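Standup notes, protein team

Yesterday: finished cleaning the Halomarina ordinaria set.
Today: Aldo/keto reductase structure.
Blockers: none.

Input for Aldo/keto reductase:
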Amino acid sequence: MSLSTVPLGRTGTTVSGLSFGTWRFGRETDTGELEVDRDQAHRLLSAYAEAGGNFIDTADMYGDGLSEEWIGDWLEGRDREDFVVASKVYWPTREDDPNGRGIGRKHLRRQVDRILDRLGTDYLDVLYCHRFDDQTPPEEFMRTLDGFVDDGRVNYLGASTFEPNAWEVARANEIADRRGYEPFTLAQPRYNLVNREIEGNYVEMCEAYDLGLCPWSPLAGGFLTGKYEREGSMPEGTRGAESDRFADRYLSEANFDALDVVRDVAEEVGATPAQVSVAWLMHHPQVTAPIVGARTVDQLEENLAADEVSLTDEQFERLAEAKEYSPMG
Ligand SMILES: NC(=O)c1ccc[n+]([C@@H]2O[C@H](COP(=O)([O-])OP(=O)(O)OC[C@H]3O[C@@H](n4cnc5c(N)ncnc54)[C@H](OP(=O)(O)O)[C@@H]3O)[C@@H](O)[C@H]2O)c1
C-alpha cells in the first residue's frame, strides 16, 4: 500500500495522512519490561516506511529519550529528507532542577540541543510545546521558539495538549503576530470518537488561526479497536490490563454505546472498528493527520489500512453523533 499524502496544515510540507507515534518506545511496564524494545521499534518504523509513511511523532520524554535515540539509529541508514519528524518539550527532564522542565528559554534551548543530538539530525520538522506552561510568559517562549526557526533548527512550531484552553494558543499567536515571530501552525490535541472535548471551541480556534490538527490517541488507547467488552476481564497484555486509569478513563457506558455505532459502520464497510475510528478522523474536515500508535506490526498494518476506508456522509455523521460533546472528554 502507499499511504495518501496531505499538506501539513498551511505549511509547505507534505506528510502522509497518517502519522506514526512512538510514545511506547522504550517505555518500562510495571514489571520492568520494555513495552516496545529497540528491535521492535525498528520493525515498526520500517513497516510504517514501507507502507509509504513519512511523518514520525516523538517527544523528548518518550522512553526517557530512548524513542528519539532509536529513531535516530533507524534514520542513520536512510535519507533524513524522506521523513518529517516531530518532537516535543515540556515534561521534567531533570527531576531536582527547577529549570529542568517546562517551556522556559533555558529548558527549551537545552532540550532542542539534546533532541537533535539523539535523533542525529540538524533540524526538526516540527517542535511542539508538549503542554502549556503558566510559569513562562508567552513572549518568552514564542521568542525562543522563533529563534529556532530563524537559525534553521526547527521548521514549524506546534502546541500539544493546550486544550481545552484555546485562548492560550490564540494569545501566543497574537503575540507572535504583533512581534513578527513564527506562530504555532500545528496543534496536537487528544481527539477521537469518544474524547470530544476539543469540540468546545478548540477546533474552531484551529480553524480561525489556520492551524493543522494532528490528533493523538485516535483509538482512545485501544478502546476503539473493540477488544474491551462491557463485561469480563481485561484482555491480557493490553494497555487496559496494565493501567488502572484506563478503565476509569474509557470503559464507560457512553463509550460502549459509541463503540456499538462504530461496530455497525465497520460491518457495513467491511472494515475493523479500529479502521473505521481512524478513517472518521481522516474524513474530518479539520483534521490534518491522526497519529496512530501500535505495539505490533500487525496492529500498525491494520491501522494504516484505514487510509483505504471510505465513509459516506451519512456514516460520517452517524459516527459524529455516536457520542455528544462533553467538556470532560
Ligand atoms: N501530545 C501528547 O500529549 C500525546 C499523548 C499521547 C499520545 N501522543 C502521540 O500519539 C501517539 C498515539 O497515541 P496512542 O498510543 O494513545 O494511540 P491509540 O492509537 O489511541 O492507542 C494505541 C494503543 O492501542 C492498542 N492498539 C493500537 N492498534 C491496535 C489494533 N489494531 N488492535 C488492537 N489494539 C491496538 C495498542 O495498545 P495495547 O496493544 O497495549 O492494548 C496501542 O499501543 C503516541 O505514540 C504519541 O506519539 C501524544
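Follow-up from PR in the comments: Residues 280 and 316 are 6 Å apart (CA to CA).
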